Amino acid sequence: MNSNISTDSAIKLNETSLSHLGNNIRVPNYDRHQITNGIVHIGVGGFHRAHQALYLDNYFHQNPGSEWGICGVGLLEFDKRMRDALNSQDCLYTLVERSPEGDRARVIGAITEYLFAPDNRQAVIDTLADPKCRIVTLTITEGGYYYIEGSGEFDANHPTIQYDLQHPDEPIGVYGFLTAALNRRRQQGIAPFTVLSCDNLQGNGNIARKMLTAFAQMQNPELGHWVAEQVAFPNCMVDRITPATTPADIKMVAEQFNIDDAFPVVTEPFLQWVVEDNFSAGRPNWESVGVQMTSDVHPYEMMKIRLLNASHLLIGYLGSLAGYTYVHEVMADPLIRQAVDHLMAEVTPTLQPVPGIDLDNYKKTLIERFANPKIRDQLPRLCLNSSAKMPKFVLGSVRDALQQGAAIEYMSLTVAAWFRYLNGNDDQGNTIPIDDPIAGTLTQLAHLNGSDAKPLLNLTEIFGDLSQSSHFVESVTNHLHRLYEFGAKETLVLNHTKSDR
């Protein structure tokens, strides 16, 4: 690869320029104009483009003229940048897999259209209501489901939900768009699409079903009943570490691969997708491109969420407090790496047997993936929206371990490290920006109460009834005291000494 190419001479990515790209770059060899969009994806970001869209790009290389192309949809003002980038590039983009062995680039062509909802809400509803749309996939983040963690109920009072209930023809939120389209399909006698959540939620399909059905029921009881009876919501587990695209990534793609791409994606070589085989209107033959179709996703979801995602939180908080920027830097610190090993060891007894997976090998692979220096995954991405992540990634393991009478030392440390992180400065006194939907409440409690964990643990919308467990409260409190008094690294020295006794 030539890294001396001037970024000014890089070739602007679009359909016309594909034939001018270097031989070291794989490009779509199928006719994208022969593809029908059978899938609408809501929430096109880096992860979707590194994961589901890649699987479908592989599929189209085997099945040209497919009916499973992707129409991407952005609902948020934040999605303008994606709209502008994709629409200027015929919806093509560069995917770069980075590892210590080298970088590999390919251009993905699976997304053939992109709709930005604020520009034309009816166009999005029309596309979803079209009989050609047979699957709607979602990556709308853990917080995008309007799910109240403490009760498991639908957050019907959220302003977005209230707006969409009052403006069914001009929705702004995901459930408003889905129900508008499903209602039209029901009235016209068109079978519903399948809703496939691809977010990191245990039972993501079950949650999507419960929340969407609740919304539809509030809008129209008959529609709610039809959704509950007719729409399929498969659960699935997704896995690929995909950092947010940075200006350095855009420059790297121009310099190394001579491609001028406004919004490339950088990711790791590892890739996994396990999907429950429950679709109401057909699906691609995903097995042919390595997707694992199963009757029960639950053990795979638990394994991934409780080992990978929980470890990411511990890495994010401890690494931020210790003053690191990147995940691979944190993993080079033996103290934090050891803490991640201990956390995984604690979580393992809470998992169910996972068919075809060697858990020891899986955990070893996770450590290697976290340590990949080429990914340059930044800690703020891991800590983003922690109030939605903590219950889903850590607290289920805590509950199970308490029930089993098992160790919760490092799970409690993860919670305590979050509370210390919420104070907004690292151990050197540098500011940490807190990016969370309820940042105001969290940071106020952290500032007012310092090393007293109880006020934060009393947030039932996050912790449910866990504040009733004296063992858990005491464990979190002890860690939090140490983190405030000694800092992250010294706390880990004390912890490891204690656990090695």
From TrEMBL:
Reaction catalyzed: D-mannitol 1-phosphate + NAD(+) = beta-D-fructose 6-phosphate + NADH + H(+)
Known EC number: 1.1.1.17
Any one Gene Ontology molecular-function term assigned to this protein's record: mannitol-1-phosphate 5-dehydrogenase activity
Pfam name, any one: Mannitol_dh
EC supergroup of this enzyme: oxidoreductase
Domain (Mannitol dehydrogenase N-terminal) ranges: 38-287
Highest taxon of source: Bacteria
Keyword Oxidoreductase applies: yes
Span of domain Mannitol dehydrogenase C-terminal: 296-483
Name recorded for this polypeptide: Mannitol-1-phosphate 5-dehydrogenase
